[in-house]
Amino acid sequence: MLHPHPNIHPGEILQEEFLKPAGVDVDALAEALRLPRERLDALVAGEGAMCVDTALRLSHYFGTSERFWLEMQLSYDLERARRARSRIESEVRPLDVA
């Protein structure tokens, strides 16, 4: 199955669509959000996930909704899982409701 759209991690969106245009680096964002720099480094690197606390802080800082950030993470995770669907379908037998 072809995936015409890349599955973009929320950290990449944060970096490319929010931090770069605003001229804010991860150090400054970590300080402004009162978060450990390591958490934001992992997020921007695509190695960490968007948690509720970070979503709330980002939404307040950038004037977005927290749902924006959380749904982006959910979409990313769901697409990754869908790519493993054939393995899941071979391992899980559907409930027989007949």
Task: Compile the SSE list and pairings.
Layout lengths: L9 H13 L3 H8 L3 H8 L7 H11 L3 H17 L2 H7 L7
Helix pairs in contact: 1-3, 2-3, 4-5
Task: Compose a concise summary of this entry.
The chain has about 100 residues and is mainly alpha-helical. It has helices spanning about 10-20, 25-35, 35-45, 50-60, 65-80, 85-90.
Q: Can you tell me the number of structural domains?
A: 1
Bin the helical content: 55-70%
The tally of beta strands, per DSSP, is 0
Rg, rounded, reads: 17 Å
Structural class: mainly alpha
Q: What would CATH call the homologous superfamily?
A: lambda repressor-like DNA-binding domains
- Could you give the order of the helices and strands? HHHHHH
CATH level-two architecture: Orthogonal Bundle
Strand content: under 5%
Give the biggest sheet. Answer: none
Assign the CATH class.
Answer: Mainly Alpha
Distance between the termini: 30 Å
- Low-confidence parts lasting 5 or more residues at pLDDT below 50? none
How many helices in DSSP terms?
Answer: 6
Shape: elongated
CATH topology, anyone? Answer: 434 Repressor (Amino-terminal Domain)
Provide the residue-averaged pLDDT: 92
